[in-house]
Amino acid sequence: MRVWFPELTDPRARSSVAGEIAPFHDYIRDHLLVNTLATTHQRLRDERGLKASYTSLRRYVRLEFPAEAALTQVTVLKDDPPPGEEAQVDYEYLGQWLDPRTGKRQRVWAFVMVLSHSRHLFCYPVVRMTLAAFVQAHVAAFAFYEGVPRRITRAGT
């Protein structure tokens, strides 16, 4: 299949803009050594007239320069705050469930609170992301933890 239909198996062949980005291959390689991908994209766009999107350039770099692309994925870990100092909250989509009362499908989200020091996790499913549900989820989390952290942040910050 790979030989007969390369457009199905080779991401380069599937890309509609790889041909537009390819002439800048050496430029991209050289600039990734000293710049971020976003800066490289902006300079290509402003100085060289590249029309391809940042996302297309990112895909090209992942295929053509895998080592350089991997460097952008490095995460620097910070020290965990002391116990009781911080909790992180977020909503995550869980899926759908069939409401037995109405017979209709409803979307379900999970309110998640994680204590930053211990990574102790609390999960609270909700069918509506309203202010009241948000407050109710926090109250339930505080009851679960039997306390309130000093600071609450959004997960990933």
CA radius of gyration:
23 Å
Number of strands: 4
Please tell me the total number of domains: 2
Strand order of the largest sheet: 3-2-1-4
What is the element string, with H for helices and E for strands?
HHHHHHHEEEHE
- Structural category: alpha+beta
> How many DSSP helices?
8
Q: Beta fraction of the residues?
A: 15-25%
Average pLDDT, rounded to a whole number, is 84
Helix content: 40-55%
Terminal CA distance reads: 44 Å
Largest beta-sheet details = 4 strands, mixed
Question: Per the principal axes of the C-alpha atoms, what is the gross shape?
Answer: elongated
Uncertain ranges: none
Question: Could you explain how this protein is built, in words?
Answer:
By secondary structure, the chain is an alpha+beta fold. The model has no long low-confidence stretch (mean pLDDT 84). The two termini are 44 Å apart. Strands 3-2-1-4 form a four-stranded mixed beta sheet, covered by helices on one side. The chain has two domains: 66 residues, no CATH class; 69 residues, no CATH class. The protein is elongated.
